[in-house]
């Protein structure tokens, strides 16, 4: 007997391996998956502009990156003793305007290079709700704690999201025609918008994304990973959530990663993943007697394993 429903996932025709170069952008769930890629020592870059939730802001950043549209002084503003850009996350904000501009433009330059070399691009959409700064009537990626009266809040229409996703695909493919896209909808619920409003937001993302993915133009090199569906259906219990009851906890993240790796990572990489996992666990081991002969032998054996793996795959470093 089955006591839960399971999501059927199609295996990728272009799986990720240790030669692949992965770039991830989007919501905080993108960071959760990136931590797994980092742990298993895949070649992986994540959110060079910080966490971004809505598809229009993601598109704007890809346009900057693909066309190398540099940030200028008009693109930043001063608030609460720091300089910010409405296009990026507050993690990049800086007390010095010039340093912020240099950081942002360095991110454009480096991400452009990474995108040209990337084999896989993972994009995670979080919400259809957006804020527009009234002064410029522009969608912002982050409000940076600027007073709410300076913004209007809107729900992106399915048509706008659809166009934005297609624009993102077109921009990236013009730079790197061979790249493989993996899209997903974040399983994190944005309850601050309201329960009904969150469902409406997610439904707009689903409708728009799947409308794009089923077109002949976009079927090539695009895939959908059902992280939201796994969380809502297979893991439909609050024991799989963090303390806020909104974000998936580590058990849920581990399970979603397991399903992702079974379907999107090549079988010939699984043995290497096991080796990496064994080394990572050994590195975290804490001895009761670090000076003992037994522990020194353990360290010597561990170093031997590390040397062999780093020699086999040059980009792996512990």
State the end-to-end distance: 44 Å
The helix-and-strand class reads alpha/beta
CATH topology of the largest domain: Rossmann fold
Low-confidence region ranges: none
Question: If classified by CATH, what would the architecture of the largest domain be?
Answer: 3-Layer(aba) Sandwich
Q: What's the CATH H-level homologous superfamily of the largest domain?
A: SGNH hydrolase
| Overall spatial form | globular
Helical content band? 40-55%
Q: Which CATH class of the largest domain applies here?
A: Alpha Beta
Computed over alpha carbons, the radius of gyration is 21 Å
Secondary-structure element order, N to C: EHEHEEHEEEEHEHHEHHHH
Count of beta strands: 10
Quaternary organization: single chain
Domain GSCFA: 21-260
InterPro entries: GSCFA, SGNH_hydro_sf
Pfam family, one: GSCFA
Protein name: GSCFA domain-containing protein
């Amino acid at each position: 007997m089955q006591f839960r429903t399971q999501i059927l996932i199609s295996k990728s025709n272009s799986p990720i391996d240790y030669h692949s170069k992965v770039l991830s952008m989007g919501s905080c769930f993108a960071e959760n998956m990136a931590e797994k890629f980092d742990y298993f020592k895949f070649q992986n870059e994540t959110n060079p502009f910080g966490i971004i939730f809505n598809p229009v802001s993601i598109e704007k950043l890809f346009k900057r990156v693909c066309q190398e549209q540099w940030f200028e002084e008009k693109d930043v503003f001063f608030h609460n003793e720091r300089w910010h850009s409405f296009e990026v996350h507050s993690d990049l904000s800086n007390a010095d305007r010039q340093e912020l501009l240099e950081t942002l433009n360095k991110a454009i330059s480096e991400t452009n290079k990474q995108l040209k070399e990337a084999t896989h691009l993972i994009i995670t959409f979080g919400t259809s709700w957006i804020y527009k700064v009234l002064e410029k009537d522009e969608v912002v990626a982050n409000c940076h704690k600027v007073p709410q009266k300076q913004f209007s809040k809107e729900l992106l229409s399915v048509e706008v999201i659809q166009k934005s996703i297609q624009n993102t695909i077109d921009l990236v493919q013009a730079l790197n025609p061979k790249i493989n896209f993996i899209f997903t909808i974040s399983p994190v619920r944005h309850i601050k918008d309201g329960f009904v409003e969150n469902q409406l937001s997610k439904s707009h993302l689903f409708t728009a994304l799947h409308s794009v993915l089923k077109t002949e133009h976009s079927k090539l090199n695009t895939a959908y990973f059902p992280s939201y569906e796994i969380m809502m259906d297979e893991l439909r219990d609050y024991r799989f959530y963090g303390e806020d009851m909104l974000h998936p906890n580590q058990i849920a993240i581990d399970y979603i990663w397991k399903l992702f790796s079974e379907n999107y990572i090549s079988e010939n990489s699984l043995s290497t993943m096991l080796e990496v996992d064994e080394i990572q666990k050994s590195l975290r081991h804490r001895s009761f007697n670090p000076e003992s002969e037994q522990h020194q032998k353990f360290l010597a054996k561990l170093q031997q394993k590390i040397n062999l793996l780093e020699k086999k795959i040059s980009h792996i470093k512990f």
